[in-house]
Amino acid sequence: MRNDARFNRIWYEDELPAWWMRVLSFLFLFVTSVRRFLYRIGAFRSTHPGVPVIVIGNIVAGGAGKTPLAIALVNALQGRGLKVGVITRGYGGKPGKEPVLVGSKTSVKQVGDEARLVANRTGAPVCVHPHRVYAAETLLAASS
Q1: Can you tell me the mean pLDDT for 137-143?
Q2: Fewest beta carbons within 10 Å, which of 33, 45, 109, 126?
């Protein structure tokens, strides 16, 4: 049986997860709790770019409608006169060491098809880098 079929049955139906999945879930709970605690006491620092941020995410990796939602949201915010930028990790691309500002001639191989799609459909600046803080800093510097 394929793993995705099994996960779907566990997620959407009443099938109980295997014992090893339950062990992994408790390990995940422990690690995330420790991480959250370390942020709370100041051992880890979070970075905020100084502008409002909306995060679109989901535990479903693909096909959940995140990209169409992002495009609709950007268009709606622009329609209200707001200046909007998009940062993404560039799934499917290989952006390199420096953040990449997506343009009409930017290679899909470099930034991924979703970044190009969002840029083309919205006209908003899009910056791609695996480290989102670097992407946000680059986007803000380019827009000022």
Answers
A1: 92
A2: 45
Q: What is the pLDDT of residues 40-52, one digit of tens each?
A: 999 998 888 889 8
| pLDDT of 78 over the 80 cut | yes
Q: Is 85 exposed, middle or buried (0-12, 13-18, 19+ CB in 10 A)?
A: buried
82 and 32, same domain (yes or no): no
* Token duo for residue 78: 């622009």
Task: Give the CA dihedral 61, 62, 63, 68, nearest 10 degrees.
Answer: 100
- From CA 17, how far away is CA 75, in angstroms rounded? 41
Give the domain extent around 86: 66-143
